Amino acid sequence: MESNRGRTFSRRWFLGAGTASLATAGLGAGLTACGSGGSGAGDGKTVTAFVYGDDAVKVQQAAVDRYNKSAAAKKAGGTIKLQKVPGSDYSPKLRTAMGSPSAPDVFFNWGGGSIRTYEEAGKLVDLTDIIADDPVLKSGFLPSVLSAGDLKGRHYGIPMRGMQPVILFYNKSVFAEHKLQPPTTWDQLLDINAKLKKAKITPFALGGSDLWPNLMWLEYLVDRLGGPEVFKRIQDGDSEGWGDPAVLKAAELVKQLVDDGAFGSKFTSVSYVNGGAPAVFAKGKAAMHLMGSWEYSTQLGKFPDFAKSNLGWAAFPTVEGGTGDVRNVVGNPTNYWSINSRTKNKDLAIGFLRECASEAYAKDLVANGDVPTTSNAKKLLASAPNPEYATFQYDLVEKAPAFTLSWDQALGDALGTKMHTEIGKLFAGKSSPSEFVTACKGLK
What we know:
CATH superfamily of the largest domain: Periplasmic binding protein-like II
Radius of gyration: 22 Å
Protein name: Extracellular solute-binding protein
CATH class of the largest domain: Alpha Beta
CATH architecture of the largest domain: 3-Layer(aba) Sandwich
Keywords: Signal
Helix content: 40-55%
Number of strands: 11
Pfam families: SBP_bac_1
InterPro entries: Bact_solute-bd_prot1, SBP, TAT_signal
Signal peptide: 1-25
């Protein structure tokens, strides 16, 4: 997925599952290069922060400039130096640096599986108690986002970019023509599918050849059926969690959709990356599209008239008989700053992290087209490029009891890649729901 870098969605998805997987590849060798008794990160006076060097880095640069002039930085006796690393180089450069005496004090990451190996090697500051004792950090962020990047219930990161929930998008003109409303229940969704197929319209666009778009369906269905605890068990290392009835039922619902033609007959050869799925959706050949929040900017870049006039959005529906809260969301909650346990100026680093909770930081994110994950952000969204859409996203996440991190991000490279393969087989009809469950239980 390294090709997913265009402004329309690369920063959204490429900073999600694809790069998160790359970030964990081969970490073991790099991390053993320098033990916890090494020389440490930085010199105490200058705290280095590694950041992914894309077009959003101007927000982090402005934060560094503000913080370095602050009383907090002067009291801590140092300054932050931002090191911008080109996207294609970020993961290997971070991996190498973290195993050397010149490791960064603070670094950008994706939470979950992307930092697990660092945590296991004792390379991260556990921020749980620090956050609990700091009013700014404790109340500064939406709880579901703060906890989404956790490892085994402990905080190792502070949110530092915009939210990226998965949303049910729909074509308003198609829905109006056929007198339809966005579904709020699974039965309604199936009824809409039947009406659309009768009108010879594919219900859902799906870039099945990329595999990762398929994942979003299972993430939401498992959550709606069994709640976030089902995947949390898997994320925490219990492969038997794949045997939860919610996983089998979700796989059965996916098979039902595929067999019923909900994605058309050629979705396994359609790609999101090359613009195929967005085009099918924008041109009215498919009425809906389950995709990350970056779909809006993708459509704005490729089909601006459609994005401005006919792109609608809604929450994923409830599933009858399920125990999951319909307010829960899945996707890429945000990106995070983590602190190297070997930093020689932890106070300076923590002070910098507090800057991410500031209104100035949130304003800069909004100006860049992002929806901040701070608790004070809603009042700022009137100045967003599309205030209505930005407010919908913020409300969706603010009200969510749980925000489940994309499964491949949460599991890391080795398991995530193997899981993608099994999901691809399920959607392509090459494995049954029960075979899918059995295969996932055996992933190692």
